[in-house]
Amino acid sequence: MLKLFIGNKNYSSWSMRPWVLMTQAGIPFEEVMVRFDSFASDSQFKTTLRTLSPAGKVPLLLDGELAVWDTLAIAEYLAEQFPDKQLWPRAVADRARARSICAEMHAGFSALRSHCPMNIEADLASQGALIWRDQPGVRADVARLTAMWSEVLAQHGGPLLFDHFTVADAYFAPVCTRLRTYALPMQPQVEAYVDRVLALAGVRAWIDGALGENEFLDFEEPYRLSG
User: What domain range includes position 160?
Assistant: First the structure.
């Protein structure tokens, strides 16, 4: 059976993507949690993962002796191994578009990522209001998300980005949790999409797991003194 190594569900946005993808698509796997203690080279987290892959990061997918790391590589591997699940859109042009927006998420949105780290259990609306006021990069990132999602949803009619659930929706699931955690302003069509993503069974299961962790890591939360 496939093994997926992940970090803390409350904090690990990259782990969330393949976990939600596999869960929502009905791909069986064994979850292996490698909890964050720190990201220092001698941490238990790094020591454990370096025995499995040279990257020493989560997520990590093991298929027998084969290790696949990096979220996008994992998504592509799963799409090849489970073609019946249609993890990418059916049409060639739609697949190209879906890959493009996933790659843009993979490499971009640095302001949203750095100023609004994922924290599912927290209510950080007050922090979000200050971030929105003071960080033009975050406002620009949300504007880009709004344009991207609105265009794709208008083209395909929803309810998800490419009609049925795909890698693209899994890829943006952690973004949806960030928008909620920090209560960042959203246009109605964007908020409706966020609601639909957060209601997916696979996303709901990840959120429930995050809420059940009850673990406060100060190095992940520079904006709070306690959980």
Answer: 92-209
